[in-house]
Give the backbone structure.
Amino acid sequence: MQDRHIVVVGGGFGGLQLANDLKGAPVRITLIDRRNHHLFQPLLYQVATTLLATSEIAWPIRNFFRDRPEVTTLLAEVVDVDSSAHTVTLKNGDTIGYDTLVLATGATHAYFGHDEWEPVAPGLKTLEDATTIRRRVLLAFEQAELEKDPAIREALLTFAIVGAGPTGVELAGIIAELARKTLPKEFRNIDTSKARIILVEAGPRVLASFVEELSDYAQKALERLGVEIHFGKPVTSCTAEGVTIGDTFVPCRTIVWAAGVQASPAAKWLDIPADRAGRVVVDKELRAPGQPDIFVIGDTAAVTREDGSPVPGIAPAAKQQGAYVAKVIRAKLSGQPAPGPFHYRHQGSLATIGKSAAIIDFGRIKLKGGIAWWVWGLAHIYFLIGTRWRIAVAWSWLWIYISRQHSARLITQRETMREE
Amino acid sequence: MQDRHIVVVGGGFGGLQLANDLKGAPVRITLIDRRNHHLFQPLLYQVATTLLATSEIAWPIRNFFRDRPEVTTLLAEVVDVDSSAHTVTLKNGDTIGYDTLVLATGATHAYFGHDEWEPVAPGLKTLEDATTIRRRVLLAFEQAELEKDPAIREALLTFAIVGAGPTGVELAGIIAELARKTLPKEFRNIDTSKARIILVEAGPRVLASFVEELSDYAQKALERLGVEIHFGKPVTSCTAEGVTIGDTFVPCRTIVWAAGVQASPAAKWLDIPADRAGRVVVDKELRAPGQPDIFVIGDTAAVTREDGSPVPGIAPAAKQQGAYVAKVIRAKLSGQPAPGPFHYRHQGSLATIGKSAAIIDFGRIKLKGGIAWWVWGLAHIYFLIGTRWRIAVAWSWLWIYISRQHSARLITQRETMREE
């Protein structure tokens, strides 16, 4: 009998964990991703803010499986699924047959019906997004140094971040430190420490997924770094000239979008209804409704906990789902009973504010301040894949900590300079 | 009396050395570069071949001068010089006045009248060039893994490098090692070790600037890595389908150009004649002809040694020229006699072939093989700027040496995939 063919679409945390946990099972695996690298998304904001280099948080997917001859990695884009024929369709028209399909295609940022904002307010999901944001932030300071008109100079030195979830808070904190601590001695015509960093949050507090005490601490830490926080009003317009918060227009040349999330179009491929964020509402075994051979995991899936609350869209959740589906597949192959419904264990929530403060909520244990920052750093180094990168990232951070100099202040991939 | 205003165009090895050596002199310096970073060009081929990350060989120029308040760094593009008005013109129309001007604007690759080859045969001068070549090399393997037509697969697995100077030899050696040693276990449908790496040299030997013995050794080392070397015939055509060597067409999807060099248009700005490579023929004090206040250094200048032979276009030569002009400026400011004509000291020639062989010519001492490779590595780490980068690069190389795994195998900045 031929080994069962598992097709995994997406080499993020969920897809990789699944392929990893199927080691030794009597299966062939084809892992398809449209990028050649797995991205350690929790640290992507550090690339956008010049702390880490692109290659420190992204690793070639096929390299993970060099010693797994039963795993084939393909750099290709899936554009459709034919669940009756049991095939996925690639962009070049080829089809690949599967016995079991796992969709782990992730999510992208969403503009709540205002996709026209994307060119001026990029989100942060890919390496290119990160280098785009890095380029814009650094170019704004460079252009301000050359600018003679004080109004334009002020707009160039104003940075708006939309959304005060972990990504927004982390971006605002590091950009503030860049402006106030790293850059001041390097410019002659402008005072970078006077840059305005504006964090816009439609809700009533930052990091709403944390308990109020930690959320308050994060807000104070941001304010100490000179971040202006605007609560309770949504962004109503983003243009090349500035951002409108509620009814107030703020001239500003750099906007970063850290607000909405939209799942990839897996539901459309399967021709099944999706939730408001485009996610597939899966059953208790993470299967797509009515599809015994199709699992959906990670940010593409809407999964609820036993108490009805949603499983958060974070890396540990995706990894647990990947591990769970591997167990379901193994059980089925060996004729064992299924492992029971998926159960999410929340291991904790972490967020950093700048380079020396963080908040951590492990449930009973809550940490904030410098100690939390060290715990956060060690945890992230531990979760990086491979000794080589653990040491490289540890060294980058240690150097930044000692010298206050950022590692990766490169302006690359020139886009047309926004000249006046 | 106001301090003399020195305008330096170009933050390469020559411009940086000059600004560095003028520390403490009674001058104001404006350093203008169209990029925000200084690039350690001798290692650029390692970015193109996935050994090093972009940020390991490029550092923000203004950061070098954070403790030199008299130095202003501008990210801007110079498009003209008005030597009678003593001004340089920026792309945005602004002019900047100078007392002394130093043009250190470098060179780019040249296609000997075939600029139409550039899109299919990129050269290697900027970080973007390096990531473009890296992307194309990695994508060729990825597309071959997906390809069903054996002829197209073979063309995808053929890599042509045009020009067997140090850059061409270094690229060919590392691409051969990538194909034969790093990648084989990662692909399932293709045998990457069967990839053809073709090095095309119109002259009779590789590394013509070295003595024949070392040049022969390099050729043998390349052949051991399975590089096919074609001597004595020029490339007569480069297209998306392949390269024509003399009269022979070789189907191939990846071409890298490491052949000609063309100086930046400084001569045109000054409206003076240039040599065949576009360089300004300077006098013995590195001044542009008839321009007492304009120096030209580095790859933009044609400088001859006392024996009439040309000073090579390498980093140490540019640095010596920058240091020399700083001395001339200092002498003039203090009313001392000029330091005499520029004298180039050749410190040695180095080139690597793959990850464990190198050749070094220090004049009386000539080294080849493994020892030369270690000397080469230590020398380059020494020349990198700053402890932070010395340690990071040393760690990257050590890891590659131990694990045979490359560091930076990222496909970024997607261009349209070359689909069939």
